[in-house]
């Protein structure tokens, strides 16, 4: 490669390019993601916010709990602004550097015209050298060196030819490759310090950081719960399969997250020796004398007393136990979720016959009940109306008077405005307005259940041992939709009238829920409503057979009737021919329409599978709706549990699905294996809230389990000799783990 010279860039000029590109790659995304912004609040949401004393106090506590937020935002802004200033300086320096290296014009430096004579060049050089000489007051060493180089380039013939040909008096320039590091790094005087810095970073700091991260990560589960805490849950839930609610609270309070040895956030004070025993005396049925470990440890008894005081809404010392309450209660929701997962794992292990004791469905439901109790600071037997602000035990008598028996928040929301105001007549208008804001934002969830057997010819028919897929659709609305106010009814009437007028203008007299289909498609069966669901039939059954003029029916008649029908056809006029052609067309259209319906169903299933896969790849969000919980120390989002169980056998059929992103609508699939014995079974689909008390729902589903087809079992290629283990397993499994409502007649014996 002629004219090229590979050398090290000792000046370190490329370092500025590296630093410039590095700053650009860091500053642009950092400015976009980390620049502090004030959250924009929707005016409608601000109007719905509660201004009760509990919520105002909670906001102040949340602000006080983050005193570092202001200085942190200031440091972030200062760092980002400093980075952009440094980027501007580097950009200017690099631009000047490129200009000096790329724009060397000796005529411009000597300030003479192109093609000047030697005398003019010497005269201009003497004149400028007097001004730019370093010994003069107006001298500039850098400019004087450029002036000298320009004079030599124009007076020396070889240098002048090189400049005219290559743009450089020294001839063709060498291609230099430089490393993007400052020049002082490769200097001999600094080599020891550079090697020491490399050793400190890569041999000391990096192993320590990785080791610390690894040591901390192996101590926690995926939900950031200590593994020792999870093992303790497994032990106690396996020891006590049918666990009462207070026992669940004892297990929760023994979590190692509340121990100072495992969690540095926990504070232990000398005053606890006096305050905790006094608090225990005020709390009945605390079971503080339990001898089981770690239930008898000091941290567990303290956490248990604080949880009981929280559920009783007892005021605590704001400088000591109240701080501990905020720390302990904030950790309870995700610990309860870990308890639910632990019980579910034990149930699955019991089904697999790896453990003998099977936890009951009541145990896992007691764990779920505890979560809304913690969030709302209420015992299970307390009235759900205490979740509303300003409502106390004295106000509850108005809900259960002789005239009215209001037992739930949903019933209270369905009352007319005058009746609701009459119930809360002892409250002021401002207090009543806050109550209605909180009640209006509470959830009203309607869930639909659909059972089917995927990847089967007849998805509505359940056979013994088949995998049943239950699709649960949740539709979440605000409780304000149930308000019985006249204003709401008028708004709905106006909306309905507007839709009706639009339908008249467009000439569409059909209802809104009926969707028109093209004329060449057969009308689909009703979607989702009871009484309109029809089982899919085979193509032959969907053919409509008309009177005896149809050739399909003629084939089934005797020979004499066939002859008569042939004579009738020959004697018939053109109208009968037209009718027969119409009948043929109708049968063809029915065949086409039935095939189109099957294709539509398959296409819908395929689209649903794609939608579920995309949703699974995207991951589930944990933002839904904020919960009104003034006694809970942190912001809480609405989460739900849904599962299927058998109430008669007290067994859990599916793992509880944790719904964390129910904003407007959410669908989930629960799968379980159908019973091995034919019969009619009743299962229950449950929906439980982890934030509110009194919002649990359940729906019963009936499965008519049929006998499995005999073609597979009687096929010769599937006949194997049963081993002794298989025979014993069959003998053990003669009894079904489910209970039936009805049994077929052929199995009564």
UniProtKB/TrEMBL annotation:
The keyword Calcium does not apply. It is a multi-pass membrane protein. Residues 105-167 form the J domain. Residues 732-749 have a biased composition (Acidic residues). Residues 522-536 have a biased composition (Basic residues). GO terms for molecular function: protein transmembrane transporter activity; RNA binding. InterPro entries: C2_domain_sf, DnaJ_domain, Ig_E-set, J_dom_sf, Sec63-dom. Pfam families: DnaJ (PF00226), Sec63 (PF02889). Keywords: Chaperone, Endoplasmic reticulum, Membrane, Protein transport, Transmembrane, Transmembrane helix, Transport. GO terms for cellular component: Sec62/Sec63 complex. The chain crosses the membrane at residues 15-35, 74-92, 192-215. Residues 544-555 have a biased composition (Low complexity). It comes from the Eukaryota. Residues 498-601, 712-749 are annotated as: Disordered. It is found in: Endoplasmic reticulum membrane. GO terms for biological process: post-translational protein targeting to endoplasmic reticulum membrane; SRP-dependent cotranslational protein targeting to membrane. Residues 502-515, 557-570, 578-592 have a biased composition (Basic and acidic residues). PANTHER family: SEC63 DOMAIN-CONTAINING, TRANSLOCATION PROTEIN SEC63 HOMOLOG. This is Translocation protein SEC63 homolog. The gene is LOC108740592.
């Amino acid at each position: 490669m002629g004219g090229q010279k590979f050398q090290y860039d000792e000046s370190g000029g490329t370092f500025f390019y590296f630093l410039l590109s590095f700053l650009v790659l860091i500053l642009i995304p950092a400015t976009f993601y980390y620049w502090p912004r004030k959250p924009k609040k929707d005016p409608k949401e601000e109007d719905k916010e509660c201004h009760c004393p509990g919520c105002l106090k909670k906001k102040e506590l949340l602000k006080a709990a983050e005193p570092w937020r202001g200085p942190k935002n200031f440091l972030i802004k200062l760092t980002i602004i400093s980075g952009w200033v440094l980027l501007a300086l580097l950009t200017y320096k690099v631009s000047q550097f490129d200009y000096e290296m790329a724009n060397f014009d000796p005529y411009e430096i000597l300030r003479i015209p192109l093609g000047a004579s030697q005398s003019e060049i010497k005269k201009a050089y003497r004149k400028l050298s007097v001004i730019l000489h370093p010994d003069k007051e107006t001298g500039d060493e850098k400019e004087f060196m450029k002036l000298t180089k320009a004079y030599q380039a124009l007076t020396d013939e070889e240098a002048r030819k090189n400049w005219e040909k290559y743009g450089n008096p020294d001839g063709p320039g060498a291609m230099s490759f430089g490393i993007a590091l400052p020049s002082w790094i490769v200097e001999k005087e600094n080599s020891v310090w550079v090697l020491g810095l490399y050793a400190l970073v890569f041999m000391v700091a990096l192993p320590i950081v990785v080791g610390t991260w690894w040591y901390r990560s192996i101590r926690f589960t995926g939900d950031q719960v200590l593994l020792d805490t999870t093992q303790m849950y497994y032990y106690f839930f396996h020891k006590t399969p049918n666990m009462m609610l207070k026992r669940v609270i004892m297990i929760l309070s023994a979590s190692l997250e509340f121990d100072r040895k495992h969690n540095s956030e926990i504070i232990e004070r000398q005053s606890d020796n006096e305050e905790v025993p006094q608090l225990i005396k005020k709390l009945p049925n605390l079971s503080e004398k339990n001898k089981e470990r770690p239930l008898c440890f000091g941290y567990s008894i303290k956490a248990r007393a604080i949880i009981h005081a929280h559920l009783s809404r007892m005021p605590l010392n704001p400088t000591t136990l109240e701080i501990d309450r905020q720390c302990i209660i904030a950790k309870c929701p995700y610990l309860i979720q870990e308890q639910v997962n632990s019980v579910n794992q034990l149930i699955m292990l019991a089904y697999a016959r790896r453990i003998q004791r099977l936890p009951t469905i009541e145990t896992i439901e007691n764990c779920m009940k505890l979560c809304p109790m913690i969030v709302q600071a209420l015992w299970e037997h307390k009235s759900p109306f205490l979740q509303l602000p300003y409502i106390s035990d004295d106000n509850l008598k108005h809900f259960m008077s002789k005239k009215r028996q209001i037992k739930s928040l949903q019933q209270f929301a369905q009352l007319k405005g005058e009746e609701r105001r009459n119930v809360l007549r002892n409250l002021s208008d401002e207090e009543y307005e806050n109550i209605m804001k909180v009640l209006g934002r509470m959830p009203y969830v309607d869930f639909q259940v659909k059972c089917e057997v995927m990847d089967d010819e007849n998805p509505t028919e359940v056979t013994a041992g088949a995998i049943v897929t239950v699709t649960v659709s949740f539709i979440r609305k605000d409780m304000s939709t149930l308000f019985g106010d006249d204003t709401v009814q008028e708004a709905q009437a106006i909306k309905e009238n507007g839709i009706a007028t639009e339908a008249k203008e467009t000439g569409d007299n059909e209802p809104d829920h009926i969707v028109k289909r093209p004329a060449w498609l057969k009308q689909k069966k009703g979607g989702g409503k009871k009484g309109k669901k029809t089982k899919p039939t085979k193509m032959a059954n969907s053919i409509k057979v008309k009177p005896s003029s149809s050739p399909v029916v003629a084939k089934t008649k005797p020979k004499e009737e066939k002859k008569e029908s042939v004579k009738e056809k020959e004697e018939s006029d053109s109208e009968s021919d037209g009718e027969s052609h119409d009948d043929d067309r109708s049968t063809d259209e029915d065949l086409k329409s039935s095939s189109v319906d099957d294709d539509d169903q398959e296409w819908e299933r395929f689209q649903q599978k794609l939608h579920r896969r995309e949703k699974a790849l995207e991951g589930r969000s944990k933002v839904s709706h904020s919960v009104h919980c003034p006694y809970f120390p942190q912001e809480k989002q609405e989460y739900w549990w849904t599962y299927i169980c058998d109430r008669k056998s007290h067994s859990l059929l599916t793992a509880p699905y944790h719904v964390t992103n129910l904003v407007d609508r959410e669908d989930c699939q629960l799968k379980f294996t159908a019973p091995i014995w034919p019969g009619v079974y009743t299962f229950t689909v449950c929906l439980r809230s982890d934030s509110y008390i009194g919002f649990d729902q359940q729906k019963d589903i009936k499965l008519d389990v049929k006998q499995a087809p005999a073609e597979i079992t009687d096929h010769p290629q599937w006949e194997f000799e049963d081993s002794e283990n298989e025979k014993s397993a069959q003998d053990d499994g003669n009894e079904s783990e489910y209970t039936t409502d009805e049994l077929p007649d052929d199995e009564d014996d």
